[in-house]
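hey so i finally got around to running the thing on that chain from the lab meeting. sorry it took forever, my laptop kept dying and i had to restart like 3 times. anyway pasting the input first so we r on the same page abt which one it is
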Amino acid sequence: MSKNPSAGRQGPRTKRQAVREKRQRQQRKQKLFIILGVIGVAVIIAALLIIPSLQPVGDIVTITPHERPMVDGRAMGDPNAPVTIEVYEDFQCPACKTFSEQIEPQVVDAYITTGDVYYIYRHFPFIDDRAPRNESDQAANASMCARDENRFWDYHDMLFANWNGENQGAFSDSRLVAFAEALGLEMESFNQCFNANLNKDEIDADLQSGRDSGVNGTPSVIVNGKMITPGFVPSFAEISEAVEAELAKSSN
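ok and heres what got predicted. didnt touch it at all, straight out
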């Protein structure tokens, strides 16, 4: 009886093949786990971005717009005034809400209506830097779209009137759009501006200029290039003292 010369080698070759197939199965499983992991992360990110826009807008506090002197975009007052005040704020900042509602009106009455101060709002959105939602950035974005319709200060007031905590959904995209509707803005233009974030470069420029000036919190008030009470919210008395000193210099 003849024998097959390869019969003795059949066992070892089959074992190697089994090991190879097992390794290939493991590699396929690893690839599958990686793909599923990537898909899972993508789904989570998409949910964080989409779900806030699907949530109900909720109650909105309306405002009665009021006149400010010589408004030009996000500035007010005489641009040739001897004193310039720049205020860096984040719309999510509770201290900025207090400053804008209590101290800013005093500055307006005492110095801006008189032509002594040119007042500029500067964006410094940072509170959402480590948050899943970008409410500070989107609030700044929306306010600039309102600026493009010459309604920055009305939208500014609407934002602070509806503040209810940091990164809590008060400034979700759907609510920011609803604020614009409540103010009677031209919604086609607003939505185009808002969705495309058309003023991002200008907001980023503010953020960088703030960093260059030593801003590390909000509100930060700068009078003729000098920061008042760094790290602390200045009172009207402290701002007045700085303004009067600059006015005295200009009169000499």
